[in-house]
Amino acid sequence: MGSDSSSLNSFEEVSVIVPVGPGDDSWASLLPSLLNLPEETEIHFVATEPRKLNLEGHWNLFLENWKGTAYWWTTDAGRAKQQNFGFKKTQRSWIWFLHADSSFSKRTIESINQITQKSFVKKIFYFRLGFEKKHFNLMSINECGVWLRSRFLKTPYGDQGFFMHRQIFQELGKFDETLPFGEDHDFIWKAHNRRVRLVEIPQVLKTSPRKYQQHGWFRLTLKYFIFLLVDTVPRYRIFLRRNQSLMKKTAITLFVKTPGISSVKTRLAQTIGRDHAESFYRYSCQALGQVVGSVTSSQVDGVWAVAEVEGMERWKGFRTIHQGEGGLGERLHRVYQHLRQEYEQVIFLGGDSPQISTSDLEEALFLLEGNHDFVLGPAEDGGYFLFGGSLDIPKHVWTEVPYSSKDTFSSFMKGLSSLGSVALLKPQFDVDEFSELKRLYDVLMDQPESHPAQLELGRWISNLRF
């Protein structure tokens, strides 16, 4: 078994370390997920006792199907000691600390592969946490709490699967073995104080709610909440006061024209009429605004870049700025240069691809926060539907691009590549022709991530009469 290693050969440098506590049998449920890893992966189980006889069959079956290297070590009890022990047993470059009651998908593996190939050394990566809820629905509240804590307080816990280069683990002094618990929390604060960036991987790592079932949901949730109030929040406030410069700010900017003042969707208007084309554009911008709003936070702002001064007051929800005069290249340069004075990263979107999802934007953010200077989303017609950058761009790179042509993307890509590394998103289609409305309708109504405004656009398309 194991994933196809032809495209995942970077796992030759990945080691998975799984601490197994006293009496913990949950490791057996992790084995099916581990079988999805490429066979080059090295796996270390670090327990406090030998495997139980009644679980030996699970281990033997795993070894029969696993063609890679797997070890079962025993050492003194204590998760910090066990994880440090596993680290000492490997010389590989990338370390993934997994709790025994975790499970993950093949998309998780693809994300890790992407990280190792791009050599994101000065970062600690972690996953979103999801609980197995089929027997315990209250855990959806805890999922929300974990997301808020990780996103706004930047304090993920160990059950979110820390993934990092061994150099970072060594520089931070490994896990503190003197702590009876909370070694993961302590480790994250050492990372903050050493200016190591924490980056969320937009994939879900599942974990079991067994602790909440054993000790009582209310009792354990209250315990963690009190710990958050008395320890995490005060630490974070001190950290912010000392490290304001570390706040990573991104502007996601929608380039728009104001219907009724400027002509919009002129090619589409030739088949459905100007009024319908303007309505489509309004619905599209509303949908894209909702998608952008789904990822805005203390570190991400939404911005309307409006073509007309007199139209700026009509755009609500985000701050508005004027594009200025001149051709499209000049206006793109002006807005990018202006926002780069306030934000470390700037993302541009147009109004032609309202099917863009929250995941698309999160992937763009993830790539920019990693080791990429720019990100581009190619459009099927030769243009691009998304641009993101974290470096200054000379004006000529913008103005020498032949916009609205089949060479737009390739020309811009060439210019950006001369300045830094460029990551690509999956291609999307623009809606410029009547035939593309049906395709858009199918995507909006079928994709599980569609926001209410995107579904409203889909219903408008289905009712279109002209």
In helices, the fraction of residues equals 40-55%
In DSSP terms, counting alpha (H) and pi (I) runs of 4 or more, how many helices? 17
CATH fold category name of the largest domain:
Spore Coat Polysaccharide Biosynthesis Protein SpsA, Chain A
| Strand percent estimate | 15-25%
Strand order in the largest sheet: 3-2-1-4-7-6-8-5
How does CATH name the architecture of the largest domain? Answer: Alpha-Beta Complex
CATH top level label of the largest domain: Alpha Beta
Instruction: Count the domains.
Output: 2
Average predicted local confidence, pLDDT: 89
Number of DSSP-assigned strands: 15
Any idea what the radius of gyration is? 25 Å
How far is the first residue's CA from the last residue's CA? Answer: 56 Å
Q: Based on the structure, what is the oligomeric state of the protein chains?
A: single chain
Structural class: alpha/beta
- Let me know the CATH homologous superfamily of the largest domain: Spore Coat Polysaccharide Biosynthesis Protein SpsA, Chain A
Shape: elongated
Low-confidence parts:
3-7
Query: How is the biggest beta sheet arranged?
Result: 8 strands, mixed
Tags for this model:
Spore Coat Polysaccharide Biosynthesis Protein SpsA, Chain A, eight-stranded mixed sheet
Outline the structure in words:
With 466 residues, the protein is α/β, with parallel strands linked by helices. It has 17 helices and 15 strands. Helix 11 packs antiparallel against helix 17 and helix 16 crosses helix 17 (452-462). The chain has 2 domains: 9-244, Spore Coat Polysaccharide Biosynthesis Protein SpsA, Chain A; 250-462, Alpha-Beta Complex (Spore Coat Polysaccharide Biosynthesis Protein SpsA, Chain A). The strands form 2 sheets. Strands 3-2-1-4-7-6-8-5 form an 8-stranded mixed beta sheet. A 7-stranded mixed beta sheet has the order 11-10-9-12-14-13-15, sandwiched between helices.
